[in-house]
Every structure is written in C-alpha cells, then in structure tokens.
Amino acid sequence: MTSHPLLEVDGLRVAIRRQDTALTVLDGVSFAVGASQCLGIVGESGCGKSLTLRAAMGLLPPGIERTGGKIRLSLQPGAAPSEVQAGQVAGRGLAMVFQDSHASLDPTMRVGTFIAETVRRRGGTSRSDARRQAVELLASVGVPDPKVRFNAYPHELSGGMRQRVAIALALATDPRVLLCDEPTTALDVTLQAQILRLLNTARTERGLGMIFVSHDIAVIRQIADVVAVMYAGQIIEIGTVSDVLDRPRHPYARALIDAVPSIDGPVGPFRSVPGSPPDPIDYGSACRFLDRCGHRDTACEGVVNGIDGREAGHRSACVHNGTLAHGLEAT
Ligand SMILES: Nc1ncnc2c1ncn2[C@@H]1O[C@H](COP(=O)(O)OP(=O)(O)OP(=O)(O)O)[C@@H](O)[C@H]1O
What we know:
The protein is an alpha/beta fold. Helix content is 30%, strand content 22%. The chain has two domains: 7-224, P-loop containing nucleotide triphosphate hydrolases (Rossmann fold); 229-330, no CATH class. Adenosine-5'-triphosphate binds at residues 16, 25, 43, 45-51, 61, 64, 215, 280.
C-alpha cells in the first residue's frame, strides 16, 4: 500500500501586495509531512517560516496572498492528499499553535467552554459529551484539576498552562497535522521541555504530522525528524536532523549551526552569520546568500532555485553541493 503524505506543499509562492506591485516573499517552497513525522523549519528572522505555516493553514494576514503553488491535505486515514484552494482555510485537517497563546484563546470565554465549543463544531457531539471531551483534553495536556481549570479564563492561568490549553484547543479540532510556530519560545527552559514532551506524545499517540518552526536549533534537534533550513523565502537545505545539523552542506546552514554555542565545545566567541539577509525587493534569480558567502564564485551568479523538499534524501541548494561539504570543515 502506498503511504501518502498528510500534507504536501508544492511550489508555494506568497506575495505582499503594495499598491500595483506584488513583492514575492516565499518562492517555490515545497515539502511533505507524513504521519507521526515532524518537519522542523529553521532560519533567521524574516526568512518566511511563519508565512509558510500561515499560507498552508489559509490564514495569511491582510495584504499578503498565495500567488502560486499547491497545498494538498489528506483528510482521511490512507487517503491521497487533495488540494486546498488559495484563500480557503484548511479547517479540520490542520491546526496551529502559536508562540503567544493569547492568539488562540478567547479572553472572554472560559477555556473549557471554548474547547467544548470547538469539539461541537466538528458535529455529532452533544453539549455534555463535548464538555466531557474538553475535560479529557485538558487532562491529556497535563492541566492539573481539569474540571476546575475548565472554568478558568485565559488571564487566570500561567503562561505555561495557557500554552497547554492552546494545544488542547488545537487538538480539539482533531487535526491530522499540527503547525507549531515557535510554541516554546516565550517559555522558560523547564516549561519548554515539558511542552516539547507533550507535543511529542500527542504526535506519536495520534499519528499526527507536525511542522515545528523555531529559530532555536537545540529545540529542533529535540523534536524534529527532518529539518528544512530556510533563507530569504526559499528552502536551501533539507534532510534528517543528523544530516543537516551534524553535516550541513550549504554554507548558510553551516554558518547558522556554527552560530549556536555548544556546551561541550571549546569556550570562545560566538560565531555569528556575518551580514544580513537581503530585503525581498532585492531577491533575484542568483543565490540569495551570495553576498554573505565566503565560498562564492561565478557559478553562484546563475539561476539558483530553492530545493524541492518533497524528495527524499539530504540535499542543499548550493551549486557547490557536495564538493564544498569537505571544504566547509576547514572554515
Ligand atoms: N503582516 C505583514 N506585513 C508585511 N510584511 C510581512 C508581514 N508578515 C511578514 N512579512 C514579511 O514577510 C517576510 C517573511 O516573514 P515571516 O514572518 O514569515 O518570517 P519568519 O521567518 O517567521 O520571521 P520570525 O522568525 O521573525 O518570525 C519578511 O520579509 C517579513 O518582513
């Protein structure tokens, strides 16, 4: 039997409308996520991580629109993914967890009531059964005294507890793929570890696909199976966690990973990625990392596309892919 991906993003393009012009900020982003698989997306601020999730979800901010590509979602176990039109909210198949839990919760509603109403929107559930399911969901995400906390308003809960409730709310839609946009960034290290464990449990127990966006490589290492590195609106490297994080091939991926201080490594100044990413108005057809790259030559000035992350294996968009991998060790 063929095992279909749950979510397939194919050649996604997203643009910001400015009067008569459209500024492309995501350019040919392609990847697939299967059941129980977690795709981590890393990259510097502004590279397009959040817009990728929002475009998949059909929740782009006003003035920003999908201008190309296809999003396909499998709504039934074993079913081939079918297309979600631009502007259509992916609804029940996808759910999103944000960095700021206030973005998901309604400040005027008791958290349990909000979750129960979300369960009811799926249809076929009585009010009392939806309440029971809401209490079970709160318990499943580790909310203590879930029957009591059912009646709390979001502002009465701590940040960590609110994030647990936001995850319960996302699970209440019975999603097939959970889109997580920096869900642990605002939390301290202990809470961060608890939320990562919780998301991992939800993923394995429910067979969820997951996309986890973070700028924190250590977090990605803990939760993801496959990592995509984004730069200036494109995926520039993809592969398993150990391929990409231990043996990066693209000079940008290498620099990003080297910028993370290591606990076991020698003490020394942090190496940061010199320079800054180009403004979307300057995105051209050449490699977008050209100006910051110590390995550039004339080959990098030709057309360099992002890579198709739906294909298996460890791949990078660098035109020197492979031949540079050895040389990078010495830099
Ligand atoms: N609401 C918006 N209006 C105008 N431009 C936007 C908006 N949201 C994002 N952008 C632009 O789109 C590009 C991609 O932004 P996006 O938020 O996806 O990046 P990101 O990688 O998630 O960054 P961060 O890690 O800071 O959240 C950036 O150039 C950003 O300035």
